[in-house]
Specification:
CATH superfamily of the largest domain: Dihydropteroate synthase-like
Largest sheet: 8 strands, parallel
Shape: elongated
CATH topology of the largest domain: TIM Barrel
Helix content: 25-40%
Number of strands: 10
Strand content: 5-15%
């Protein structure tokens, strides 16, 4: 379209004003919304008069692709008749239009176009009414919800073999008592499922070599009897309540005294005469020398059902097994923290020794020196046995005395770790207590206080006692003498 000059512009202005009057009349009659343009505003459109004259006969003009600029829009929305708009909708529309206008002004300003005058409708417009929902009144509970709980019951098809330690007179020996260990059908101390069948046995270590390096905290209890292994064993039983004696024949070591098997037999006989509890015989760790000594002792001391400590994969399994079987003794099958090695050794012993004459020892590492590894291997063995593994269903033993191999158990440290006289026994106690929960059946220990503490724990677990006021940790009684 082209602009035809001032004359056509004047005619266009008159024509627009005439159309505005007609629109006003139509609006009042039909109550339709129209756009009002104030009379004092003069609009010049670049449209020729000829086109407008041709369109004059129409009531409406529709323009396409036309930009219209204005400063103010006034909407006359009728409220009468059937098509009226309620005040709530009108208020909402006014508010939204004002928001659009103010947002446009801010955007124009940010783009560098200067601020467009605002009507302030956004500030003046009334926010639409918010419907306030009244929250329901809170009802406080008057009683606790009753819920039923049950401890899950494990399904264990296996059973640990029972093994007898020692022999009384009626059983062919001379001991005042004998013990049966093993027989578990559930993990250790699942009292909620099955009560423990047999109680673990606590043995105390004695040595036939008075120069054995012992911590001062241990030596102070045995100093008067270090030169007499028989009296040492008697002290452990009569004063400290040892249930068995574990003799360590260190003098047979070729690097110490290289004592003969005959001398070792005499040492064992002295101990058997000093005490009436079952006895375990420990070697020096030399595979060849240990086998010779164990064989000599088994041949000379019949019927006592001695616990041979121990047979390893490094020894002659056939000769060891025949010695155990022929003299009706019991054996500890010792391996070094390896479940598969434990299976292998047991499997080899089965060719010569009945299953009810075998204990397993998978090695005890001290607290702070691999106790978690020792615990894991022992627990794996016991759980495998309970699930039906026929090569691991044996009672387990622990050399808990190994706790003293940890230098932190006895070395001089800062005052916050004193007194050392208590630190060491606690170290041994925690080591034993931890392994007790894997299902250990036979403990070899050293410090009297550690033996007593572990015995109290076992008493409570066997009886299924519940702690009295466990939160009163200041005055609670642990037990013991």
């Amino acid at each position: 379209m082209t602009h035809s000059g001032l004359a056509s512009g004047s005619r266009l202005q008159d024509h627009i004003e005439e159309r505005q009057d007609q629109s006003r009349e139509t609006n009042h009659k039909g109550r339709k919304g129209v756009i009002r343009v104030p009379k004092e505003k003069k609009i010049n459109l670049p449209i020729s008069a000829d086109i407008l004259e041709r369109l004059a006969k129409f009531q409406e003009i529709e323009l396409q692709d036309v930009d219209i600029e204005f400063e103010e829009i006034e909407l006359d929305l009728g409220t009468g008749g059937g098509g009226g708009i309620n005040s709530g909708v009108m208020s909402r529309m006014a508010y939204e239009f004002a928001q659009i206008r103010d947002s446009t002004n801010r955007l124009t300003y940010l783009l560098g176009g200067g601020a467009i005058p605002t009507t302030g409708y956004a500030q003046q417009a009334v926010q639409p009414q918010q419907v306030t929902q009244v929250a329901p009144s809170r009802v406080l509970p008057t009683e606790l919800i009753t819920a039923k709980t049950s401890i899950p019951q494990g399904d264990y098809s296996g059973e640990v073999v029972e093994v007898r330690l020692g022999a009384t007179k009626s059983e062919g020996g001379t001991r005042g008592k004998s013990y049966v260990i093993g027989g578990q059908t559930t993990p250790a101390y699942y009292n909620f499922q099955v009560k423990p069948k047999n109680r673990p046995v606590l043995a105390m270590d004695v040595f036939d070599w008075p120069k054995v390096p012992l911590s001062k905290a241990v030596k102070m209890h045995f100093r008067p009897v270090l030169n007499d292994v028989g009296e040492w064993a008697r002290l452990c039983v009569d004063k400290f309540g040892a249930e068995m004696i574990n003799i360590h024949l260190l003098t047979i070591d070729p690097l110490i005294e290289d004592a003969s098997p005959k001398a070792a037999v005499k040492t064992v006989e002295n101990v058997l005469q000093a005490v009436d509890v079952p006895v375990s015989i420990g070697g020096c760790g030399d595979p060849q020398k240990d086998l010779k000594v164990f064989t000599a002792i088994s041949e000379q001391i019949e019927g006592e059902n001695l616990l041979i400590n121990s047979v390893t994969l490094d020894m002659d399994i056939e000769k060891s097994g025949e010695m155990i079987r022929d003299h009706n003794n019991t054996v500890i099958a010792f391996t070094s923290m390896d479940v598969n090695k434990a299976r292998e050794l047991n499997r080899k012993l089965y060719d010569f020794v009945p299953k009810n004459q075998i204990l397993m020892d998978t090695t005890t590492a001290a607290l702070g020196y691999g106790l978690d590894y020792a615990f894991t291997v022992m627990e794996r063995c016991r759980l495998a046995a309970l699930k039906g593994d026929p090569e691991l269903n044996h009672p387990m033993s622990s050399g808990t005395t190994n706790a003293w191999a940890a230098r932190e158990a006895w070395m001089k440290m800062g005052p916050e770790f004193d007194p050392r006289e208590l630190r060491g026994p606690i170290w041994e106690t925690i080591t034993g207590q931890t392994l007790l929960l894997t299902g250990i059946d036979y403990f070899m220990m050293m410090h009297p206080a550690a033996v007593n503490a572990l015995k109290v724990m076992i008493d409570g677990l066997m009886k299924g006692e519940k702690p009295n006021q466990p939160t009163d940790w200041v005055s609670i009684t642990v037990g013991g003498n």
